[in-house]
């Protein structure tokens, strides 16, 4: 099976790509609405994501990409409705290896299981172009009929990073602006000073649930710890090679399903 689905609530499911290492596997969120559904981020594109989502829903689908990195935008091209921030529109249209951060050390570390994906060739793998069909920016609202998500522009990790915020359920889909792991602020288009402002803003948001772009979801107390650690100079990745070595050593089995038992009761 190319994916697994974990139904967290009536509203929200987590979809995970099979055979992608835990430490880099993007969280793909399926959000069910009355009139349409959202697919937030799309993984590396190793399997047919839209078909997989269609098994659970026949409503119209809007695919949102929180930012233009290779681990989030791989299956974006499968969807008719493709939404993201204007600042990264050129990358979605022309996803070169450098632009999607699949180059240098990132293309050398093993992130896809050769057993699960024998046809995946890391040296020649590319992202399929997925030009945006619409732009999302600060203050825009995605109305699904029975829930409405406000778009937050949360730059720093990348210039066009966005998050979605539902004030009623106090839930944020935060992409890579914040997740429960080492944060990345040293990519070619990252901006650490801007990132600090974004994290301070997220810390001040009255949110209870954070569904990040990677790793299990968490609540307000953990968010404070993550942000405060970052602002003190910790919780960052440093060199990709060292980080990778550390992650590999810490994982019993990098390709196993992620343990969500410690995640907050979302
Ligand atoms: Zn990213």
What's the CATH topology name? Metallo-beta-lactamase, Chain A
Parts with pLDDT < 50 across at least 5 consecutive residues:
none
The distinct bound ligands, ions and cofactors come out as: zinc ion
Helix content: 10-25%
Instruction: Please summarize the sheet with the most strands.
Output: 7 strands, mixed
CATH superfamily: Ribonuclease Z/Hydroxyacylglutathione hydrolase-like
Q: Quick check: average pLDDT? A: 92
Query: How many beta strands in the DSSP annotation?
Result: 13
Portion in beta strands: 15-25%
The whole-angstrom Rg is 17 Å
Bulk shape: globular
Level-2 CATH architecture: 4-Layer Sandwich
Q: Helix tally? A: 7
Using the coordinates above, name the CATH class: Alpha Beta
Structural domains: how many:
1
- Name the helix and strand elements from N-terminus to C-terminus, one letter apiece: EEEEHEHEHHEEEEEHEEHH
Q: What's the end-to-end separation, in Å? A: 25 Å
């Amino acid at each position: 099976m190319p994916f697994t689905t974990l139904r967290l609530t009536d509203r929200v499911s987590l979809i995970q790509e099979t055979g992608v290492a835990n430490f880099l596997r993007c969280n793909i969120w399926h959000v069910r609405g009355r009139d349409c559904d959202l697919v937030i981020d799309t993984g590396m594109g190793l399997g047919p994501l839209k078909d997989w989502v269609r098994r659970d829903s026949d409503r119209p689908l809007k695919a949102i990409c929180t930012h233009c990195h290779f681990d989030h935008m791989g299956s974006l091209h499968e969807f008719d409705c493709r939404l993201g921030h204007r600042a990264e529109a050129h990358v979605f249209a022309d996803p070169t290896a450098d632009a999607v951060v699949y180059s240098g050390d990132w293309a050398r570390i093993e992130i896809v299981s050769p057993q699960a994906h024998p046809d995946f060739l890391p040296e020649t793998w590319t992202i399929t172009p997925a030009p945006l069909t619409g732009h999302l920016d600060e203050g825009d609202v995605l109305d699904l009929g029975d829930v409405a998500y406000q778009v937050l522009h949360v730059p720093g990790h990348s210039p066009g990073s966005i998050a979605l915020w539902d004030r009623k359920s106090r839930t944020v889909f935060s992409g890579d602006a914040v997740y429960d792991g080492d944060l990345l602020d040293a990519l070619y288009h990252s901006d650490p000073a801007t990132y600090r402002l974004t994290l301070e803003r997220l810390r001040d948001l009255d949110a209870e649930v954070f569904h990040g772009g990677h790793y299990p979801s968490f609540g307000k107390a953990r968010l404070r710890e993550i942000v405060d650690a970052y602002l003190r100079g910790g919780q960052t990745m440093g060199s990709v090679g060292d980080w990778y070595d550390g992650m590999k050593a810490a994982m019993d089995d990098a390709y196993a399903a992620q343990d969500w038992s410690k995640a907050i009761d979302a």
